[in-house]
Specification:
Largest sheet: 7 strands, mixed
Strand content: 25-35%
Number of strands: 7
Structural class: alpha+beta
Number of domains: 1
Strand order of the largest sheet: 1-2-3-4-5-7-6
Shape: globular
Order of helices and strands: HEEEEHHEHEE
């Protein structure tokens, strides 16, 4: 049996984590290994959460979530309808679901958009928010790093002996 086959599932999100707010209903991909999820908020905004494989590491993932609406040119300011905590809780649940079907994944990366008035900052307010949330919910066998405007979560290396 190969080392990869011998490894047990390593949770990405703490097993005891319970969302402090309800999540929106999630539309899962048609197949468990799918990479695109959707949800709609109470105000009617439809979101897409997409997982893409990194070019240099097939076990690494880039997470992109965005509003699917032509009515918003500036997604950051226009979509703030007091739903941010439920949106983050729903994206967290989607990441948990994705990881259940992709247990060999070794990293997840995401970055937040900058507000027009904040583009001179090294790290966007959204990336800082994602980082703080990830620190709270990450399982112990994962590390987190804030690098510029990117939040990277990666599996800790460990030995079996």
């Amino acid at each position: 049996m190969s080392e990869m086959e011998n490894q047990e599932f390593i949770h990405l999100i703490r097993e005891d984590y319970i969302s402090p707010v309800p999540v929106y209903p999630i539309e899962k991909p048609g197949i468990p290994s799918g990479s695109t999820y959707f949800f709609t908020t109470s105000s009617g905004l439809r979101y897409e959460v997409l997982f893409a494989k990194k070019r240099d590491n097939y076990l690494g993932n880039i997470i992109n979530f965005s509003v699917l609406s032509d009515e918003y040119d500036d997604e950051y300011t226009e979509t703030n309808r007091g739903e941010v905590y439920r949106v983050i809780a729903t994206v967290t649940e989607i990441i948990r679901l994705y990881h259940q079907s992709h247990g060999y994944s070794t990293s997840y990366e995401f970055s937040g958009e900058f507000k027009d008035s904040m583009e001179k900052r090294q790290t966007s307010i959204r990336s800082l928010l994602y980082y703080r949330k990830a620190v709270q919910i990450l399982a112990p066998l994962w590390n987190i790093e804030l690098s510029g405007n990117r939040v990277v979560v990666f599996r800790k290396r460990y030995s079996n002996g």
